[in-house]
Amino acid sequence: MWVIEITVGLAEDLLPFKYLGILTTDARLTRLECSYGKNDNENRAVSSRHTPYTGNINSLPPPPSQHLRHSTPTPPTPLSISSRQTMNHKSPRVSYSPAILAKQLSKDPLLHHPRPTHPLVWCSAIICLVFCLLLIFFGVATLIVFLVIKPKYPSFDITNASLNAIYFDSPENFNGYFTLLANFTNSNRKMKIRYDYLDVELYFGDRLIATQALEPFSQRPGEVRLEVVHLISSLVYLPPNPAIELQRQVQSNRVKYNIRGTFRIKATVGSARFSYWLHAKCQLEMTSPPSGVLVARSCSTKR
């Protein structure tokens, strides 16, 4: 069972025609109401309610004729047909004029044009873009330099050493004289380096017993430089256990020393310069003084 409501307005000057009926499942149409007029006072009932009608929808009675107020015809309004499954449930039908619809659509924010971007946003975006491009450029340049030049760390080694004296003024005060020949090698073939700071320290075990600073110098690519380092210990305090261990090694003709070097290096590649710190460690085994010579060594260099 379907409820059919037909509202037809042919022009603004004509009275609207309204037809309400029921269409059953056996194609029978029952006319409930047929009226026309702009309000309830102007409505005129054409037929009584619940009058069975056995015809089809196309044979509905035409709306009553009306006299035109103006000679110029206007386009017909659209036909509105609404169907309902039950008679008791009716939803209100709200109609809006074109002016109201246009005003509502103009208020919709989705239909508005986007606001222009603030200049600060554009400036920030341009700065970020330039920064990213510079970062990429320097990264690629560094990679190219690394692949072409293949930089290497300078190496530190001890070519020779001599232990001239070890003696104690007291059980805890140590005196000694140690000389070594240091070998500084620039393994790079396309990079110049300069040692801005050089410091060499002598250890017995983990106890510092002598230190010596060297004068700064430069090295060309592939250059080897030998430096004589004199390490003198004068009245150096040694705790009882290290002092006893040193005396035992002197008696056994095997004295073990540790050398630690700290260097600040400045490298030059074309017009680019960069600096870094380099640390060297060497383990030496000497014979007893006064004619102690180098027996074994092991050196390593790292940043």
From TrEMBL:
Q: What is its main location?
A: membrane
What's any one GO cellular component for it?
A: plasma membrane
Q: Where is this region: Disordered?
A: 40-84
A Gene Ontology biological process term: defense response to other organism
Q: Where in the cell is it found?
A: Membrane
Native source organism of the sequence: Carnegiea gigantea
Every Late embryogenesis abundant protein LEA-2 subgroup domain range: 185-272
Locate the transmembrane regions by residue number. Answer: 119-149
Where does the signal sequence lie? none
Listed A to Z, the keywords are: Membrane, Transmembrane, Transmembrane helix
Membrane topology listed for this record: Single-pass membrane protein
Bias (Polar residues): 44-59
State what protein this is by name. Answer: Late embryogenesis abundant protein LEA-2 subgroup domain-containing protein
An example Pfam family from this entry, by short name, is LEA_2
